[in-house]
Amino acid sequence: MTQTGTGAAAQPNSFRTIKTEILRRIRDRVWQPGELIPGEEDLAREFGCARVTVNRALRELADIGIVERKRRVGTRIAEHPLREARLEIPVVRTEVEARGAQYRFSVLSRDEVEVPETLRARLELPPGAPVLHVRCLHFADNRPWQFEDRWINLAAVPDIAGQSFETVSPNEWLVRNAPFSEMENDLSAAGATTEEAEMLGVSRGDPVFVIERATWLLDQPITLVRMVHPSSYRMISRV
Amino acid sequence: MTQTGTGAAAQPNSFRTIKTEILRRIRDRVWQPGELIPGEEDLAREFGCARVTVNRALRELADIGIVERKRRVGTRIAEHPLREARLEIPVVRTEVEARGAQYRFSVLSRDEVEVPETLRARLELPPGAPVLHVRCLHFADNRPWQFEDRWINLAAVPDIAGQSFETVSPNEWLVRNAPFSEMENDLSAAGATTEEAEMLGVSRGDPVFVIERATWLLDQPITLVRMVHPSSYRMISRV
DNA sequence: GAGTGGTCTAGACCACTCT
DNA sequence: GAGTGGTCTAGACCACTCA
Asked: What is the distance between the alpha carbons of residues B53 and A119, in angstroms, rounded to a whole number?
């Protein structure tokens, strides 16, 4: 009946309060992994709130893998909780500047070509589709930070054809002008190839951190990029 | 007035439909990055649905970084869209088996000790807190897959003290019995140390993929683990 | 068939922030 | 002060799944 009125802070009975309380019960072993917890209706009654509020709390906990929900069955504490981490994907420049270093980049090559077959298959592009191939080197305080080898689907991002990349890197231009909704990342450690070693100023075979990323907007491929970092690089995520 | 009745499928006017339509408008440049889009009220009128429904669609888009929302200002298409990737965190055994390989592991060492200072600071544990230190080697088809060096907060997970880890690895035991809500991951490439090289059957200095992970349940530290993989390892995420 | 989560509607108050 | 998003309530129908 009365208005609860939640804002940023967690008032009594907000979905945030309920989330925290559920986590508390899990931590204190009130509810064990695998256990079925009361239904939304019951919890709503217990917390004195609407069912939708409980629903949101439980949905968000399900989103991060803490609980599992099934219709007709109910909600149970996950036996294999939290299956995912979130990694931030910053613009290279921002990433460098955030570490207090000076950023600059240089474009090593730039070619408009028809899509090579391996790339075509990887991104599900039509045969002969025009793509832009760009290779860049990014620096932090004049030390090589990342070697970038990128392919861009010109059908999806026609405006990029007119870009000189003198002041704005392809990475940053894309991030600003070509939103995407789907992304695949493949992270690995590898030994530097001869070219990578030369670019990054390390020895051939030295460990490098490799990120290969493909992006789409709905089902339209945008770009595929391989980014290679020296082994001092750290990718950090907090969930 | 009428009931829309959405289920798994996206009926007209479900929050899913609205999400997709908004993505379509972004893809088709109806709305450009940086642009302010109509308010929830207007969109609700346009789509013929309740404001809450538009709110959920926009909230989920904001969650993945496609739009940015501010009170009093409105919702705009993000200029730096999608800042995060989600990485799945599987149980080692599952991960190995998913690749069609046979899994086994061996416990290299196991000690209950007082928390060392560096670890104490990292996890914000009280001085002298009891921790369990376990080192394991995980195999895929009898080839070394991962070298694991783990510290466990016994105050948070007392039951683990009685575990022999003969059949269930510490990793899997924790995943089954110790839910967590917060996690930090630090991914990097490194040269194998002498010990790591020996364990993984590679040469010293060879590239290895390193995951360092710390977990908490609410604010209680659970475990800190360093997992080292040979360079053939791939960490893949799809968003 | 019946119970549980999934989602929608309609209306409301609040919090933040810009002017 | 005013406008926009943030969230809550109350009630409802639907979809899925188990028995």
From this structure: 39
Give per-10-residue mean pLDDT for chain A (239 aa): 35 82 87 90 90 93 88 86 68 86 94 92 90 96 96 92 88 81 90 96 96 88 95 84
Alpha-carbon gap: B71 to the closest alpha carbon of chain A (Å): 11
Q: The pTM is what?
A: 0.78
Residues of chain B with CATH 3.40.1410.10: 92-230
- Kindly report, residue by residue over B36-64, the tens digit of the pLDDT: 999 999 999 998 999 999 999 999 999 88
**Angle, in degrees to the nearest 10, between helices A15-27 and A40-47:** 100
Distance from residue B32's CA to nucleotide C5's C1', rounded to whole Å: 37
Q: Rounded to the nearest 5 degrees, what angle is found at the Cα of B133, between the Cα atoms of B162 and B128? A: 95
The reply to whether residue B27 touches residue A218, judged by beta carbons under 8 angstroms, is: yes
Q: B24 vs A234: CB contact, 8 Å cut-off? A: no
Contact B183 A91 (CB under 8 A): no
Query: Class of B92-230 per CATH?
Result: alpha beta
Using CB atoms, pick whichever of B85, B184, B186 lies closest to residue A183: B85
Is any atom of nucleic acid chain D found less than 7 Å from the CB of residue A13? yes
**How far apart are the C-alpha atoms of B137 and B176, rounded to whole Å?**
19
Task: Write the CA distances from A114 to A159, A215, A227, integer angstroms.
Answer: 17, 19, 22
Residue bearing tokens 């760009």: A134
Tokens of B77: 């298409």
- CATH label, A15-77, candidates 3.40.50.720, 1.20.1640.10, 1.10.10.10, 2.60.40.10: 1.10.10.10
